[in-house]
Amino acid sequence: xxxxxxxxxxxxxLTGCAGTPTYNPTVYPFNIDEKNMAESxxxxxxxxxxxxxxxxxxxxxxxxxxxxxxxERYLRDNGYKVLPxxxxxxxxxxxxxxxxxxxxxxxxxxxxxxxxxxMTSVRDQMKSSNLDAFIFTDLVELQQSFSNGLKHLARWDxxxxxxxxxGPGNGVAGDFDWYKTASVASMQINIYDIELRHLFTSRGGMxxxxxxxxxxxxxxFIRRRNILENEVHVHEGIALAFHPFIEMEKWPGxx
Length: 255
Description:
By secondary structure, the chain is α/β, with parallel strands linked by helices. The chain contains 7 helices and 11 strands.
């Protein structure tokens, strides 16, 4: 009986530990305008097909439509009505012809005056759709190093990721420089209400876009062939980016 009781306690402890989120101090310091959020009562949204900030790198931009599909599903699963993106695209194209392209082709930076003119025009056209908010889902790339510990984890924007290998080998050189930085991807969320007031911004880590090249004797990072292929990692990044606009279960930001 004593052994059975001991085993039962062990199982309960292990189960409790498994359900406890691991604290990650790298969670992004989100910004939420609670006053305007309460006034806006966001229920119907549209996902913008353009970035609010700098344009995503080309290999991330290729994945944006697929990732936006995951975002749409996440929003619907949490009770939001998501309008078709094609309506936003149509009104954006019309306004862009009137006011010009807001993206500088040389620097990739956004001309915010032109951007504001386009968004005002789009807003005016979409008011009849009972739209409450615009959601921008920028895929951004950062530089991060993997730790020199046993697990070699990289931590950023609330996630912990192990390095992946690419090439014919299955090992890493013993003198590999773990302080080298690799490219990693995050999703940055910005939400504006129908009056174009900024309600919310945050960011969630997804995955590394670089892998360790096993063909290199000295060790180096190269671009991964398949970008953001791990759906579990992508979904985690989306949940992190939306918290607390949509509360994430087991959010890792609580110490």
